[in-house]
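User: Quick sanity check before I run a bigger batch. Here is a single chain. Can you write out its predicted 3D structure?
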Amino acid sequence: MLDTRWLGRLPYAEALALQESLVARKIADPGTPDTLLLLEHEPVFTIGRTPDRSSLRDVAALPHPLVVTGRGGQATYHGPGQLIGYPILDLKPRGQDLHRYLRALEEMLIALCAQFGVTGTRREGLTGVWVGEKKLASIGIGVRRWISLHGFALNVGGDLAPYRAITPCGIADVEMTSLERETGRVISVEAAATTAAALASAHLGLAAVP
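Assistant: Done. Predicted structure follows.
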């Protein structure tokens, strides 16, 4: 069973605390249902725990707060107009396979994009979802005792300008895009969240590996 929750807009620290609480609960009680948190963040930059911070460029010049967090990967931006998904899943019965899990997240996002008339794709050697050469969604995960946390960020609409203050995901000269930019129409984050919730069980159920 997947418990899917739409939380609206939350500060990053509040959403992280909720993830930590859910992970601790699942570690203590493996029978706790898997959960998918869907939300927006207040404007924030994040980076994984890596000694290489070159993707931040000039930290002092960042227009919004910076949080060093426990996911993998380089710098990214979160803010209004972006759908955030934090799956809290037990990966042990699914083969303890992070590659498989990342591909499942990408497949779900590609299916979500298709619902809005956008053809999302993968790019060889890179994690996330793309429209041609433009990046539409980023993925950065963490795992604790094979319980997942962190997750994905899909640009639905909103201001993409903050990405210009960093090197998004450490990819030089990458252009970021959004569902609204690709379709030329207004799409609410809540509408994208509703679609994600409908797709999640099929894509993130990740049938158990014998």
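The chain has one domain: 2-204.

User: Great, the batch can go ahead then.
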